[in-house]
Amino acid sequence: MMKKLLAMILTFSLCLSVGAAFADTLTMATNASFPPYEYIEGDTIVGIDAEIAAAICAKMGYELEIADMEFDSIIAAIQSGKADFGMAGMTVTEDREQLVNFSISYATGIQAVIVTEGSPITQADDLFAEDANFTIGVQLSTTGDLYATWDIEDEGLGTISRFPNGNDAVMALVGGKVDCVIIDNEPAKAYVAANQGLAVLDTEYAVEDYAACIAKGNEALLTQFDAALEALIADGTVQAIIDKYIPAQ
After folding, report:
1. What is the rounded CA–CA span in Å between residue 163 and residue 112?
2. What are 135's strand-pairing partners?
């Protein structure tokens, strides 16, 4: 009887040891058309958010799985439990805070304006001129969309054309279907580098902080996530990842 009990204890201990070797997985929802924060390289999603998320998960003892989806589907995926957290160059806004919780901020973003060379739009303030009537391309549900809606469309200063991703908005600009595109500065620079005849205005449209979103009610994950992120900010890991993709000018 004692030998059988010892065998059962040993078996249970081995199972615990084997189980401990395999970390659980956390799923991150993102929109992989937002370089350098997230984009597809070969068959892999890479970028600032992908690497910071991987470092956070490793710090917490989890493996990372990334789910690519439309930007405006990310919060719904978090709320429904299809993903554990979202990172997609997402800005904290009051409306979004009603739907999800946010981590501490890990990066600062700038909303920029892309125009064609020779455009009559030479600074961001041109979009607010009294006689302005421009068509502005944005990625659906991003802060570029929100700001342009509040500042321009709601004030009768122009028309907003919404696209499922930034690339579609930029292609509409190239094709003459919109007069400019409002999008985050780093993706803006990447799109301009890839398409001749485009430029980013020197004047910024808005400055904002990026954070990860986590479902309301999941305070345990939020606390653990923030603790790991704070440690990675403190030891320089987060800044090193950002510097890798956005070298100091």
Report:
1. 17
2. 159
Inter-residue contact 128 to 152 (CB < 8 Å): yes
Q: Which residues lie across from 184 on neighbouring strands?
A: 111
Q: Which residues have CB under 8 Å from 130's CB, separation 6+?
A: none
Among positive and negative, which fits the CA dihedral 169, 173, 174, 175? positive
Regions of the chain where pLDDT drops below 70: 1-23, 248-249
Helix (H, G, I), strand (E, B) or coil at 43: coil
CB-count exposure of residue 105 (10 Å: 0-12, 13-18, 19+): middle
Residue for token pair 């620079």: 189
Tokens at 106, concatenated: 């890990």
Q: Outline where DSSP puts E strands in the chain.
A: 25-30, 33-34, 38-41, 44-46, 63-68, 85-86, 100-102, 107-116, 134-139, 158-163, 180-184, 198-200, 206-210, 213-215
- Match 């122009």 to its residue by tokens: 158
Q: What is the DSSP letter of 76?
A: H
Residue range 23-106+211-245, CATH number = 3.40.190.10
Distance CA 147, CA 139 (A): 12
Superfamily for domain range 110-207: Periplasmic binding protein-like II (3.40.190.10)
